[in-house]
Amino acid sequence: MTEATATKEPIKAYEIDPKFKYELSKMHGSEKLLKCFQCGTCTSDCPVARFSDTYRPRTIIRMAQLGLRERVLKSDTLWLCAACFTCTDRCPQNVEVASVIRVLRNLAAEKGCVPQVFKEQAASVLETGYAYKIPELRVKKRETQGLPPLPKGNPESVRKSLKGVKFIEVVAKKGEQRDQ
Ligand code: SF4
Ligand code: SF4
To answer: Which helix (H) or strand (E) holds 44?
Structure first.
């Protein structure tokens, strides 16, 4: 779902899941979700929001409070957070905003709602041990410049470390329909 759709489209009654906020309140990191009184400090101090016309952590928190489960989980905005924790440090209500976003991302990932770019990076980590596949051309260029070969990635070790945390399953999972 695009940022504009997620935040500006009128809310339909059937979109509201009244249980969502209570579910989130029981999850580690989002226990204080309901304490948010929408002061906007998180947004005003967020370094990502400063450079975006649409990314607003306060809005994400509000969407979660309102029970807009599908809208928030399918939103691109979730994936813009840089996890710097400034919002968490500054929130006057001690809402762990960055952790709430992590919880929402985990729920989105379980549904396969992960932006394609991150899925590809994750698949590359599993396959090569690197987030990006190093193009052969660049490897050759290093040689011509007399640079030492890059260290070999260790995808077996990566896969072993990630066993049991659903990462591999999430990468393989086909996502639910996203609007982008
Ligand atoms: S700073 Fe805290 S209380 Fe204020 S809008 Fe953000 S989450 Fe809500
Ligand atoms: S943790 Fe995310 S939402 Fe919070 S201030 Fe940093 S970038 Fe913004």
So the answer is: helix 41-45
| Ligand 1 pocket, residue 49 CB under 6 Å | no
Cβ–ligand 1 contact at 58 (below 6 Å): yes
Q: Residues 6 or more apart from 76 whose CB is under 8 A from it?
A: 1, 2, 3, 6, 115, 180
Residue nearest to atom 4 of ligand 2 (CA): 87
Q: Measured from the CB, is residue 80 less than 6 Å from ligand 2?
A: no
What number does the ligand 1 atom closest to the CA of 97 have?
Answer: 7
> For each of the chain's 180 residues, which pLDDT tens digit applies?
555 556 678 889 999 999 999 999 999 999 999 999 999 999 999 999 999 999 999 999 999 999 999 999 999 889 999 999 999 999 999 999 999 999 999 999 999 899 989 988 988 999 989 988 888 999 999 999 999 988 888 999 998 998 888 888 887 777 665 544
**Ligand found nearest the CA of 41:** 1
